[in-house]
Design goal:
The complex is a heterodimer of chains A (386) and B (676). Chain A is mainly alpha-helical and 386 residues long. Chain A has helices at 3-15, 18-47, 62-107, 112-155, 163-196, 202-215, 217-245, 250-317, 321-341, 345-351, 372-385. In chain A, helix 2 packs antiparallel against helix 8 (250-317). The chains are: A mainly alpha (386), B alpha+beta (676). Chains A and B meet through helix 2, helix 3, helix 4, helix 5 and helix 7 of A and strand 26, helix 6, strand 35 and helix 11 of B.
Chain lengths: 386, 676
Amino acid sequence: MTIKHAYINGFQLAVRSPRMIFTLYFTNFILVAIFALSFYSTISSAIGNSMLFDSFMKEENSLFLQDLLHNNGQGILAIVGQLKWALIAYWLLNVFLMGGIIRTFNKQKYGLTVFFGGAGYNFPRFLGLSVLIMLSHFVVFALAALFGFLGYTIFEESFQTERIYAFLIAASIVFYFILAIILFLASDFGKIYLLLNDSQNFFKAYFKAIAFVFKRFFKVYVLYLLLLVVPLVFFYLFTKINGDIGMKTIVGLTMMFFIQQIFIYIRFGFRVWTLGSLFEYYADELLLMNKIALEKERLTELAERKSELSTMINVKKDIKPEEKHENTGNSENINQKSVDLTVDDDEDDEIKVVPDDYDFDAIKPDADITPTHLNEFDKDDIDAKG
Amino acid sequence: MKKFCFSWLFILLLSAINVIVAQSPTSEKKALSNRIANYDMWVQLNPETKIVNGDMVINWKNTSPDTIKELHFHLYMNAFKNSRSTFLQETGGGMLRGLKMDKEKDNAWGYCNVQSITDVQNNELIKQFQYFQPDDTNSFDQTVARLTLNNPVLPNDSVVLKLKFETKMPVIFARAGFADNYFLVAQWFPKLGVYEHSGIRGAEKGRWNCHQYHGHSEFYADFSVYNVDITLPADFVVGATGVQTNEKSKTDGTKILSFRADDVVDFAWTASQRFKIVNSEWNDVKIHLLLQPEHFSQADRHLEALKYALEYFNQHVGPYPYPQITVVDPPMKGFGSAGMEYPMFITAGTLWNLPKGLRFPENVTIHEFGHNYFMGILATNEFEEAWMDEGMNTYFETRIMDDYYGKNNAWIDFPFYQEGDLTSKIKGYNFSDANKVAPSYLYSWHYNSGGYRNDGYGMMSYNKPAVFLSTLERMLGRETMDNIWRKYYDEWKFKHPSTEDFINLVVDNAALKYQKNYNADIRDFLKQSIYGTDICDYTVSGINNDNLTADAGLFDKNGKIVKLTETEKPAFKYLASVSLQRLGEFVVPVEVKVTFANGEEKITLWDGKSRTHVIKFLSDSKIVSAYIDPSHKNVMDVNLLNNSYAFKTEKSGIYKLVIQFLFAMQNFFQFFSAFI
C-alpha cells in the first residue's frame, strides 16, 4: 500500500469512528474535569469573598495570580501533587483503550462489546509493550542528552557564541524526536502485531515492530510526518482563533470553552487517524505477506510434487544417483526462485508476521487471531487467483 | 633619569593644559561639575597577556576646608587577585549573578599593581602607598590603598601625581575582565575615593569615603575629566566612556585611540575584534551600539529601548548632559559583564534569537541607561545607600517599561503568559519569604541571608524601593512625583545626595499635598520604607448590616415626657459597618470604598494606624461590599486577596481560570498519552 492510501484510509477510518473518538475524548475530559472541579473548589475557597478577581475576566493581571499562589499556594500545590497519580492512571487508561481501538479497526465496526472487549483482552500485553516503549523513550532521551552534553564538552572552548549551544540544544531535541518517532511508530505497529497475531509475547512484538519500521523506514516515516502536518496546521489555526476571540466576556469564555473542547476532540481524531493509517498500512503489508506465504507454500508443494515425480521417473528409468542429485538441485532452484519471487525471504524469516504454519481455518471467531476483514479479503483474493 | 624627567615634564604640561582647558570658563563646553579628580592616561592593551599597562597623571583638587595629608585610592582589580580578597569571600569564592569564576583557566586572576608614584618634585612616593581595609579586617584584601603625601594639600589647592600601573584583567565572571579577545575594562585604574567634607552626605567632619570592592557594590566617585589614550592592535573595535577625539595608526600594527569624557564619575572601555557597530542618534546624542555579530538582528530592539529611555528621562527627570552613549553587547562567554553601568557607556546583554516576548535586552538597556542618572549624574554612594542607585533606577525602569510596552506585558509577553515590569518587582519583594530580612538602607556588605535563600540585597536595593516609590507616586499622583524628580535632578545633579537629602526634598515638595490628601506625614511613609523592615497588609475583616429599630421608652420632649415605641419608623433602616484590620506593621493611610445595595458608593479614608478600625454608616441600604485601596495605589500590600469583601462576587474570573486549567491539563494528559 502506498503511503497516500494509508493516509487516506486512516482518515476515512477516523471519520467513520466518531463514537470511538468521543470515548477517548470523554475519558480524558472526565478525568481532568475531576481535577478541574477540585481546582475550582480550591480557588473559590481561597478567593472566598474577595473581589480581587472580579475584573480578571477583562484584564488578566498576573500579579493577582501570583498573589493567589503566594497566599493560597498550598491548596493549589496539593492538586498539582495529585495530578501525577492521575497522569499514571490516564496512561494506563490509554493503554487499555488502545486495545479497543485496534480491535474496532479490525472488526470494522464500533460496538461497546467489541471496543471494551478488545480493550480488556489486549490490556496485559499492550501494557507490557507500553512499558518497553516508555523505557525506550527514557533511553533515547538520555542518548539525546548525552549527545548534547558531548557536543557542549567538545565545543565549549572553541566557539565564541551561544549559537552553537542553541544548535546543540536544537540538535538534541531533533535527535530525540527523530528516534522518538521510530518509537511512536513501533509502539503502534507493535500493538497491531500483538492483536493480529494474538501473541502474548510483547518483547517479540517490540522487536518485530522496530524491525518492521526499519525495513520500511522511508515509507512509514514519511507517513508519520505527513500525519503530523495537519495537526500542526490545526494547532496554528486554533491559536489564531484563541487570540481573536479571547476570554474577555462571558460569551467569549463560553465560545472558547466549546472551541477548546472541539480542539481536544479533534486532537483525539488525529490520534485515531494516525493509528488507522498505520493499521491500514500494516494490515496491507500483512496481506501481502500472507499472499507471499501462500504462494511460497504452493510453489514448495509444486516443487515437492515435481521432485516426487522426478524420483518416480528416475526409479522407473533406473537413473544413476548423480543424476538424481542434479534433479535435487533443480528442486532447490525452484525453491530459490519462489523465494526470489517473494522478493524478501529474509523478511519472511525475520518478521514472521504470518508463520509458515499459519492456519487460517483455526481462527477463533471472537479472538483477534487474524484480521476478520483481511481473512475474508484474503480468501477472495486467493480464490480469484485460482 | 634625565629622559624620564623630560617625559614627566612633558606629560605634566599636557595634563596641565588639559586641566586648564577643562576648567576654563572659555572652554567650548562649560563645566557641569566641580571636576575634583581629573585623569590623563596613556595605556596599552596586550590582548595576549590580558594586561593593560598605563601611565597616568592625576590632578586632584581639594574643595574642602580641610588640609589633606593623604589620598585614598581604589585598586579594584585586586579583588580578583586571590581567593582571600573580600570580594571573592563575599561572592562565595567567585559566584555572582549565577556565574562562577573559572579559576583553573589560564590567566584567570587579575590585579592592579601600582609600580611608581611621583609628585611634581619628582619624589618617589610608592613606599608611602599602603593597602588598608576600611570595611573589614581582611588583611588579604588589597582593593583600597592610601598614599601619604609629602606635602599636604591645602584648601582650594591641588595635587598632581604621576602613576605607573599595570592591570591584569581577570577572566570575566563578574562585571569586568576578558573572555577570549573580548575585553570589558572597568574599575581598572588606580582611582581616587571621595573626600567628604563636613556637610556632605551628613558628614560631621571631613572623611575619605573609599570602600573596598564588594560583592554587591562598586560605585562612588567624584566628577572628573578624563583624557585617555588607548593603544591596542589595529583590528580591535573600541568603545568607551567619552567621545573619541583622535585615532592614529602605528607602523607596528597597533593604533592609538584618544577619548575625552567631561563631568563623569568613571571611565570604562571595551575592545573586541568581533563587534559590529550600529550608529544612530537621538536629538543631539550620538548612539553607538557595539553588537556581537550573532545579535545584530536585535539592534532595533536595543535602539528602540534606548531612545525611549532617553526621551523619558529627559521628559520626567532632566536632560541627558552628555553628547554620546555607547551600548555594549557582550558575548556569551563574557556574559558576566552584561548589565553594567558606566557613564556614557553601558553593557546590555542578549542571546541569539531571543524571543521578542522576552524583553530582557530592552529591560537591561533601559535599566543600565538609567544609571547614567542614578549614580552617574546624581552621584550617590552605592556602597552605603544602594537603594538610591539601584532602587530609584529600578523604579524608573518599571515606569519606562510598563509605559512603553504595556503594564501587563512589558517584561514577559507570550500568548500563554504575560507579566508587567512593576509586577515582576512586586513579586520579588511582596511575595518573598525574606521580605523582612533587612531594610533598604544598609551598607551593601552588611546584608545577611539570615537563613533565607538570598541575603536580601537585590530585593531591598532594587525591588522594594521600586515598590515603595511606585506606591508614593500613586498616592501623590504622577505629576507631583515627576515634579519631585525634576527638583531632585536640578538640585543634586553632579553632586552627592544622601537618603536624608532626598527625604527632605520630598518633604519640601510633597508633604503638603500628602497631608491634605491623607492627613498624614509623608516623612513617616519614607522612613518606614527606607529604614524599616515592616511589611504592609490591610484586610477587610467583615461587613455588618444591623437592622435599626426606632427609639423606644420615655423621652423628654419640649418639657413633656413622650413615650416612643419600637413600632415607629426609624430614621434609617440599617446601621451598616465595615471592620478593617492592620495585619502588618507598616502604617500607611488607605482608601476604603464601600458599596451599598442601591448602587451608592462611598470612599472614606482610614489613617491605617490602629490595629482595627470600624467604619459605620446609617443607611437605608445594606452594604454589599468593601474594598481597601480599590484603585491599587498601595502596591506594597503583601496580600491583595484580603483587601476586599463582598457578599456576592463576580465568578467569571474564576471560571476563566478553571477553563484555562482544564484545557491545559487536557492537552498535557493527551500529550503524555503519546508515550504508550
